[in-house]
Amino acid sequence: IIAGGHGGGGSEVYGPVYIFQRNGTDWLEQCKFISSDFSFGHAISISADYAVVGAPDEDNDDEVRSGAAHVYKRNGTSWTEQPRLIAPDAAALDCFGSSASISGDCIIVGAPYDDDDANFQSKNVGSVYVFKRFGSGFRQQAKLSASDGTHDDHFGNSLSSDGDYVII
Is the distance from CB of 95 to CB of 111 less than 8 angstroms? Predict the structure, then answer.
């Protein structure tokens, strides 16, 4: 089980995100992830030895609230953070990491405020990024968008994946 929460009270550490492991009929806390980004844990997903944690309000370089997805890999009972995922075409206010799902070797991440539509006139159309595991890391494999996307659709606000299928 992976569960997210919110920090607060003026603290500079947010999240946290907890991983629980079943032991018979009991669920035991295995680890806790924390971050300095207040949106850390907005989206969470786990599959086998990998977990992904969305932080849609995280800043990247000069791009305010472009967002990120943090990836963790399990080795025995410990989890280590892998290189975080960001959209290769990240722009301010895209909120990449608003939704996230991991299934097998693929991580799917939503950016519901992405404005990268075909006619460049609509705002907040949204998009979804597909990352595939290659060796020890993940690389972008595709960028998905709605064929009939329009203003304020927020495509990618919610999603799930299973094997070769993604529902958005």
Answer: yes
The residue whose two tokens read 């009929």 is: 25
| pLDDT tens by residue, 2-52 | 556 556 444 455 679 999 999 999 999 999 999 888 899 999 999 999 999
pLDDT in tens, 46-90: 999 999 999 999 998 888 899 999 999 999 989 999 999 999 999
Please write down the HEC assignment for all residues of the chain.
CEEECCCCCCCCCEEEEEEEEEECCEEEEEEEEEECCCCCCCEEEEECCEEEEEECCCCECCECCCEEEEEEEEECCEEEECCCECCCCCCCCCCECCEEEEECCEEEEEECCCCCCCCCCCCCCEEEEEEEEECCEEEEEEEECCCCCCCCCCECCCCEEECCEEEC
